[in-house]
Amino acid sequence: YYDHVDEKPTFKGGDMDKFDTWFRNRVSTLQFCDSMEATVTFIVDTEGKVNDLEIKTYSNSHLKMLEQRIRKIPAWTPGMQNAEAVNTFVTYKYIYLNFLQKTPCGGFIV
Q1: In angstroms, rounded to a whole number, what is the distance separating the alpha carbons of residues 61 and 96?
Q2: Quick one: which of 98, 100, 103, 2 has its CA closest to 44?
Q3: Contact criterion met (CB below 8 Å) for 79 and 5
Q4: Between vectors from CA 92 to CA 86 and to CA 96, what angle results, nearest 5°?
Q5: Exposure pattern of 89-104 as b/e (b: 16+ CB <10 Å)?
Q6: How far apart are CA 11 and CA 104, in angstroms?
Q7: pLDDT tens, residue by residue, 67-98
Q8: DSSP reduced 3-state for 45
Q9: Global pTM?
Q10: What is the 3-state secondary structure of 3-18?
Q11: DSSP conformation class of 1
């Protein structure tokens, strides 16, 4: 796979901002009890399919929730190198800042 290509893979006709919007819409209904950061990596193959999806985060509970929501990423337009579709490595970083603090009884303190 390639890290750097002549033309990066595109998501639904757009750049990483389009993927960011799709990702945030998929996880927006999750209620994390604290702030979190996750790094999502995958390979977009020559047909635009997503393979080798990995999510790295410091919390296993966050990991399970994220995996359930984003397991099936729609197809991309593959990256191009020398006018040929190539397998391309993609990294996406997601940061969620929660300004509410969860109490032991499940309520929130502002």
Answers
A1: 14
A2: 2
A3: yes
A4: 165
A5: bbebebebeeeeeeee
A6: 40
A7: 777 778 899 999 999 999 999 999 998 877 76
A8: coil
A9: 0.78
A10: CCCCECCEECCECHHH
A11: -
